[in-house]
Amino acid sequence: MNMNTQAMAMDHHWLPFTNNRAFRQNPQVFAKAKGVRYWTPEGDELLDGSSGLFCSAAGHGRPEIAEAVSRQLMELDYTPHFQRAAPVSFELAERLAALLPEGIDRVFFGASGSEAVDSAMKIALAYHRARGQGQRTRFVSRAWAYHGVNLGGTALAGMVGNRRDFSGATCDVVHMRHTWSEDQRFTRGQPDDGAHLADDLEEICKTYGPETIAAVFVEPIAGSIGTIVPPKGYLARLREIADRHGILLVFDEVITGFGRTGSAFAAQEFGVTPDIITMAKALTNGAVPMSAVGVKTEIQDAVFAAAEGADRPELMHGYTYSAHPVACAAALAALNIYRDDGLFERSRALSPVFLDAVFGLRNLPQVSDLRGYGMVAGVQLAPGDQPGAKGMAVQRRLFDAGLHVKATGDALILAPAFVASESEIGQMADILRGVLGQAF
Ligand SMILES: Cc1ncc(COP(=O)(O)O)c(C=O)c1O
Question: Which Pfam families does this chain map to (predicted)?
Answer without folding.
Answer: Aminotran_3
